[in-house]
Amino acid sequence: MIDKNEKPTLEHESLSRSLKNRHIQMIAIGGAIGVGLFYGATGAIQSAGPSIIFAYLAVGIVIYFIMRALGEMTVEEPISGSYVTYASRYISPFTGYYLGWTALLTMAAGSAAEYAAIGHYIQFWVPDFPVWVSAFFVLCLVILINTLSVKAYGEIEFWLSLIKVIAIIGMIILGGAMLLFGIGNGGQAVGFDNLTNNGGLFPLGVKGWILSLVLVAFAFGGVEIVGVAAAEAGNVKKTIPQAINGVFWRILIFYVGAITIMVSLFDWSGIGEHGSPFVTVFEKIGIPGAASVINLVIIAAAISALNSGIYSATRVLYSLSLQGKAPSIISKLNKNKVPFISLLIVIATQLFGVLMNYIMPASAFEIFSTIVVVGLISNWLSILFSQLKFRKAKINSGEVENLLYKMPFWPYSSYFAIAFMLSIIVIMAFMPYTRVALYVAPVWICILFISYKISGIKIKETENVQEKLVP
To answer: Does residue 176 contact residue 261 with C-beta atoms inside 8 Å?
Structure first.
């Protein structure tokens, strides 16, 4: 069994450690800001009205604690697989097994949702173009990106993420100018009356606000990839704290800022009826071809999120192989130090996403986004429970004062975040279209538990599981 107090080292076939701080930050942003803001925000707003601002703020605070919990462990133990490996080490081997293979399920479901969004936005230009054809073309593109060297992948993801970051900042600045100075509105400031005009801040009551938390949680999915990328980052002790602090504040500002602008500029009940609020803002300012520009941005956002998701799932599966929880051939690296067998398996799950958009193009996004939430909550809860046991192990060994990036307000912050995530699961039971995920989850856990027991998986000895860090 693994010695919980022994620090990991990278295995003989180590991953390349060529990702820079700017790459890590944009990879995390790329995973977290997909179509959840551009495509999924409308549904969240319709669920809660202007109070959706507080929903994004509340979930954002919890996500910060989760990222800090992950950061505390990552700085001390920067290993491939990240939260999956920590779960194996500090919770149980089966938990790591469950999370690793669930990453593939989440990737498959998430890709179906992202591909659906891409297909619908391609139809803006070509109305009758099949969604699945768009999905297949994008799949080929992300396959190409992920077969390149890690450095090349990081560079491409940096620029893809930068596109959507610029669009969001532009929307916040231009929308703010319209609200305060009337720019693009004939010189007449719009003001903030829309926040209270149509039923007040909580037009659908506290119940509507609570129900919206599920959709908001989906929007933040992918932030945990910053821990996965640590195995291929240089100077982890400096890079990871900078990335986590930077990513959290940027994501929070982007989401809360953009959503505040949306519900202030427009009557919340009509948002989405006449196209994307982003398009409306840019059109009012007078930017030529605003709809086409935003369409391109949304497609880039979805490709970026898919890209980050494939990267994360590939590294998680690679880590499972190192731990003996998946066939050893999966840990094979190509000349670019990319785990190509793992990548091929992840690509196979992407084909599932394409197939689902062929079978059910109209409902793929809604159905599979709820399944993704279960995977995300599993990841986030595992991070929090792992960190609780990690910190206690450090306390028992007398090493707690040596921790470089401590979780703030521990252990109360961890307990608060755990309670919040569990409440999301309860909320899902009261929403008809999210109950699907709750039906899928127990079946999936049983399948994995049976396969785990039948296969008789045993954790490799410490020296074989651990990976050797390249200075």
So the answer is: yes
Question: How many helices (DSSP H) and strands (DSSP E) are in the chain?
Answer: 19, 0
pLDDT at 470 over 80: no
Is residue 60 within 8 A of residue 221, CB to CB? The reply is: no
Structure-token pair, residue 353 = 């996403």
Q: What is the mean pLDDT of residues 179-194?
A: 85
Q: How far apart are CA 380 and CA 365, in angstroms?
A: 22
Please state which of the ranges 26-30, 178-182, 282-286, 385-389 shows the lowest mean pLDDT: 26-30
CB 173 within 8 A of CB 389: no
Cβ neighbours, 10 Å, residue 282: 24
Q: What is the largest CA-CA distance in the chain?
A: 71
CA distance 333 to 220: 31
Return d(Cα 406, Cα 418) in angstroms, integer: 18
**Cβ 407 vs Cβ 413: under 8 Å:** yes
**Contact 247/28 with Cβ under 8 angstroms?**
yes
Rounded to an integer, what distance in angstroms lies between the CA atom of residue 48 and that of residue 448?
36
**How many angstroms from the chain centroid is the CA of residue 38?**
14
DSSP state of 175: H
pTM of the model: 0.81
Q: Give the count of beta carbons closer than 10 Å to the beta carbon of residue 288.
A: 8
What is the DSSP secondary structure assignment for residue 234, as one 8-state letter?
S
Query: Tokens 């045993």 appear where?
Result: 458
Q: Where are the alpha helices (DSSP H) in 398-467?
A: 412-428, 435-455, 462-465
